[in-house]
Structure formats: structure tokens, C-alpha cells
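Endoplasmic reticulum oxidoreductase 1 beta
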Amino acid sequence: MSCVISETHPGVEVVPQAVTHSFFCSLLQLTGVLDDCFCDVESIDVFNNFKIYPRIKKLTERDYFRYYKVNLKRPCPFWPDDGHCAIKDCHVEPCPESKVPVGIKSGNYNKYSQAANTMSDMTECEQANELGAINSTLSNQSKEAFADWARHDDAQDHFCELDDETSPDAEYVDLLLNPERFTGYKGPSAWRVWNSIYEENCFKPRSVYRPLNPLAPSRGESKGFYNWLEGLCLEKRVFYRLISGLHSSINIHLCAEYLLDEGWGRSVWGPNVQEFRQRFDTAETKGEGTRRLKNLYFLYLIELRALYKVAPYFERAIVNLYTGNSQEDGETKELLLQIFNEIKAFPMHFDEKSMFAGHKMEAKTLKEEFRLHFKNISRIMDCVGCSKCRLWGKLQTQGLGTALKVLFSEKEIKNLPEHSPSKGFQLTRQEIVALLNGFGR
Ligand SMILES: Cc1cc2nc3c(=O)[nH]c(=O)nc-3n(C[C@H](O)[C@H](O)[C@H](O)COP(=O)(O)OP(=O)(O)OC[C@H]3O[C@@H](n4cnc5c(N)ncnc54)[C@H](O)[C@@H]3O)c2cc1C
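Structure:
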């Protein structure tokens, strides 16, 4: 959770200071054990700040992870669009195709089609364009398996509504050049999105008001809300805490890279402690801030657990983080495997076994409900009226959706064949990029 600010762009000055979330949290002396798991804030801080974050930062700077294909023009499916906001800092600069590494832009493994078997007449260059991410050393058997893989992928139960990567509106974005930070997006448009996420998608009856909700007639009453929350089964409580953790992450990032000064053609970005206090200080938030920060740690643990579970998928030699540059690809994979090794050594993982463990039929229904609620949240991201916020909102929900997909695919991941793609479990490049970048946040 540390966020070291280091990017430089023309006309933009960044306060040359290492800013960490734990620095913010230490302002509020956040300590102690987290609810619904056996882990404490201090252990996570040490583990993350020394072992994980420096490596994740390096990983997300590599080509495979910095280009994310996204459709920021999809209409809001729930209410008429607010119209895209005109705030300058909401602008997202798409990446010209010529800048995207050839291996990435020509598609990924599961876009493989039968056409590849009939390509013998093509020039090498044409083949590279068609096959794109497919490693040229693959056997025919593997190629066939990829075709199966693609079919399976279309039918797989996703936790997120995925953007259609073939839509002309889907564009590559260089995440390093479009960092998540303060944009000035706020007020009724932003509240409507948050409100609809919590009200309609967190299993909550309308009669229970969320604490301090600016859209609630009574501004929300915390006692009733927490009585309701505590009465829920673990799964539904977890759902609320994940969403609240995501909300905290977004709001912390806007405090950590705030627009501090602007004028004479240059902008100064840096941490805004005052803004952070207003959102998270116990006194300023009637105790809500501490809960919200703990939910962020909880979200971290869930994503960490998903990475632990998905490690065997990536450890197979057949999985190649392909950009077309074999040296770069080898180093990227090595770095990812180092991260998995650190994660395996962490002793306080969240135990997801207690989730969906009840009666078989009940557990199945609940899991499906969970999936559909989360999918709906990913659709609400198309209602965010600020492109930069929409980009990072979509990426982080897709990252969390991918983490949930991993957590509920334990059996399939265990049974992965070593030398061929599996029919039971598969991740697209977009999901991998979202999972690691989301965790990096
Ligand atoms: C998907 C999305 C992405 C965004 N990305 C950005 C961005 O990149 N940069 C940027 O500057 N702005 C971004 N915003 C806007 C930002 O999140 C806030 O909405 C905005 O700054 C206004 O803040 P606020 O203080 O009015 O409360 P909001 O954050 O809008 O929250 C509304 C209400 O929800 C409750 N609440 C707040 N935090 C939590 C929590 N963690 N858990 C539970 N309840 C909570 C409080 O009652 C609060 O009044 C984004 C908004 C959305 C919906």
C-alpha cells in the first residue's frame, strides 16, 4: 500500500517525496486486529512495505502490465449519462497503437483461432500479426488446446462484465502516463455512483441507512447500519467490506496525489494531509474513518489470498507474459514469480474456506448472488462521469472480480496440466493486468 511518487511529465511537478499509505495511516494511529480474519494492521504494513510493494511497483512499470485495453465510451446502462465531464484532470490520453508492443496488440492466447493452422502461405510478418501473443514454439497440440481454451473462456462464470476488446471503442491506455490521482470529480454525480453501488448491490434493504450518507434524508445513522451488518452472514459482510475497501483505496489515492498548486503552466502534485484527515480522521468522521481504513486492509488480504491461490497457474512454463520481446518477457515472469514466493511466505492469509461452506445448494445460490451483485458493480463503472476515474474504477473492479474468480476456482487451479492450457481455468491478459495493478493500488 505504499505509493512512491516518481513520475515526471512536462509541465507537471511532483513533490519529490516518498509518500506511503502507511504514513497516512500512522497519522491516525491505525493499529490492531482486523475483523473477519486473523491478521493485524502492523504485520500487513511491514510485509507490504518491505517485501511486496517495491516489487509490485517494478512489475507494474513493465510493458506487459502498463498497457490496459479498456472501453471508456460504453454508455451507462442504469441512467442517462451525465455527459462526460469537462474537468481537465479527468482526461485520459489513449496510447497510439504504434507505441503498444507488437505482442500485446495482436491479441492474447485465448484469441487464438483455427486460422493459425492454415497460415502456411503467409509471410512471417503476417503470421506474427495474426498469431500475436502465441509463442512460436507452441506445438500443434497446444494450439488446439488454446482453441478449446478460448471456447471455454467465453462460457466461464465471470465476476465482472468484461469490455469487448474487439470493439472499435476499446483503446490501449498507458497506465503510467495516466496515474490515478485527484481529478476534482465529486458532488452528486460521484455520490450517485457510490450510492447505487452500496444501496443496490450490497445486499442492503433501503430502510437501513449507511452512516454519513450525503444522499440519505437523515445523513445515515451508524448504529442501525452496524447492527444490520453484524447480523449478516460472513459472505455478505465480506462483500460490503470489499466495496468499502475499494472506496477507501480510491479516496486515499486522490489524497496522496492531490493537485497542490497550479499556475504558470505547471501543476504541483503531492500528498494532502488535510484532505486525508477530513475523510478518515476518527473525530471528523464520527469513527467511520478507522472502519473504512480497516476495510482497505481487508481488501488487501483478499487480493493477497487470490494471488497465493493463482500462483500455480503462472508457475507453469507454458504461461508466458508475452510482449514479443523474449528477454523482457523472461524478466517480467521472474519478477512475478519472486512476488509469489514472498506471498507464499506470509503467515496470516485470509481463510476463504469459511465462505460458501454451508449447505451445498444454499452455498451455490449465495455464490451466484455474490457474482451477480459484483458483476452489476462492474457495469456501474460505466456510469462514472470522469474518464480518469472510470479508467481506474474499471481496472480496480476488474482486478477484484478476477481475485474472486480465482478464490472460487480452487479445484480447477489445482488440476491444471503442466504443459498444456487448461479448460477449467484461464485468465485473459486484461484480467492479469487488472489483478496485479489493482493489488498494486
Ligand atoms: C468509481 C469512482 C472512482 C473515482 N475515482 C476518483 C479519482 O481517481 N480521483 C478523484 O479525485 N476522485 C475520484 N472519485 C471521486 C471520489 O471518490 C469522491 O466521490 C469525491 O472526492 C467526493 O468525496 P466525498 O467526500 O463527497 O465522499 P465520497 O467519497 O463521494 O463518498 C460518499 C459517501 O460515502 C461514504 N463513504 C466514504 N468513504 C467510504 C468508505 N470507504 N466506505 C464506506 N462508506 C464510505 C460517506 O458517507 C461519504 O459521504 C471517484 C468516484 C467514483 C465513484
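Residues 180, 182-183, 185-186, 190-191, 193-194, 212-214, 244, 247-248, 250-251, 254, 279, 292, 384, 388-389, 392-393 surround flavin-adenine dinucleotide (CB under 6 Å).
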